[in-house]
Amino acid sequence: MTIGKGKRPRDPNQLAKWTVDVSTGQIPEPQEAPTLEIVTPPANLSEYMAAIGRKGGQIGGKRRLKTMTKEQRSKVAKRAARARWKKK
Length: 88
Description:
single chain, 88 residues, mainly alpha, 0% strand, elongated
């Protein structure tokens, strides 16, 4: 019976054997889960969230272009050009 990372078995017989093995030192005791630190939010939360969103958008655009076909890229580029010329 192999139990990794201190995971306790559900079967009562296996649990009893596991308890004896841990108490006699045949297998190492399970380590406690690490405690999570409470993170304080930055002073200006909206600027922080905007920076995170911008970073994801920059990654997303590059990844999107890799997955598009040549026709799809052309269609998007034409649409963007029309929108730019419409503004002037």
